[in-house]
Amino acid sequence: MQSRKLPLTWVGMVPFTLFALLFLIAPTMYIVVGAFRTSDGGFTLSNLVNLFQPTILASYWISIRISLATALVGCLIGFALAAAVTLGGLPKWLRGPVMTFSGVASNFAGVPLAFAFLATLGRLGLVTVLLKSWFGFNIYTHGFNLLSFFGLTITYLFFQIPLMVLIITPALDGLKREWKEAASILGATGFQYWRIVALPILWPSLLGTLALLFANSFGAVATAYALTGSSMSIVPIMLYAQIRGDVLQDPHLGYALAFGMIVITGLANLAYVWLRVRSERWMR
């Protein structure tokens, strides 16, 4: 009788599978279960009900606002940049450096990014000092504050825009030249081609990328904490404070807070996957 052997091609999946189980799936399930437990181990829904406290709702709301703002602005600027280097009249040699920078900048976050913006736009930052010395213009006396909603939004855009460029560029490459030529033969202008042909085809990709950028911003914590400390009570910072010092005085309420983040980011990622599958049908 011939023995059945496991194909060696599956061996490469073992480290990744173990890594995902230990550091992603198992902690996620632990949080989900903890959100529905009491301190003595019983089942309860009170932890989820307590999420509707004014302070927690306010933290969710400001996190959603920042995520939406950075996702929308990141999509607009990133799409314009990707279209310029892909379909525009810019020199072709620019595409390589732009894509390389986007790959690096999309992963540049945390303490280094916060320090970079403090050194540039902080009260004693380079740009702040130069504007004050050369033009007598102090951005802080005119309402700007890096440690605010607007300042955090600008900081997040540093990695949101490059991420948009990386994701939308393949979709732009998928626009077939024949479509534009056919529209031109039929008498369509460039604006009409984009409005009637290109944008409807790209629309699922754009919406999917918007959802992904929203999830990416909603879950960011290191940059926000390093930049603002505890001055802005967004959900990741509140959760981080709960893990370090139990500021909510209820560890299972902290699990519920994390569970709410999992639900929101999970829905955003599911929307991205679904819309990405729809967009790929047009690109085949």
CATH top-level class: Mainly Alpha
- The number of E-state strands comes to 0
**Estimated radius of gyration:** 23 Å
Determine the N-to-C terminus distance: 45 Å
Number of domains: 1
Helix percentage range: over 70%
Which parts are unreliable, with pLDDT below 50 for 5 consecutive residues or more?
none
Largest sheet: none
> Would you list the SSEs in sequence order as H and E?
HHHHHHHHHHHH
CATH topological fold name: MetI-like fold
Number of DSSP helices? 12
- Derived from helix and strand composition plus strand pairing, the structural class reads mainly alpha
Mean residue pLDDT: 86
Question: Which CATH-level-2 architecture?
Answer: Orthogonal Bundle
CATH homologous superfamily, by name? MetI-like
Topology, please?
Elements: H1 13-35, H2 46-49, H3 54-86, H4 95-105, H5 111-121, H6 126-135, H7 149-173, H8 177-185, H9 190-218, H10 222-228, H11 235-245, H12 251-283
Would you kindly provide a written description of the structure presented here, covering whatever features stand out?
This protein starts with 12 loop residues before the first helix and ends with a helix. Helix 3 runs antiparallel to helix 9 (190-218), helix 5 (111-121) packs parallel to helix 10 and helix 9 runs antiparallel to helix 12. With 284 residues, the chain is mainly α. Helices cover 73% and strands 0% of the residues. The protein is globular, with a radius of gyration of 23 Å. The chain is built from twelve helices and no strands. The protein has helices at residues 13-35, 46-49, 54-86, 95-105, 111-121, 126-135, 149-173, 177-185, 190-218, 222-228, 235-245, 251-283. The longest helix is centred in the first third of the chain and has 33 residues, at 54-86. The protein has one domain: MetI-like (MetI-like fold, Orthogonal Bundle), CATH 1.10.3720.
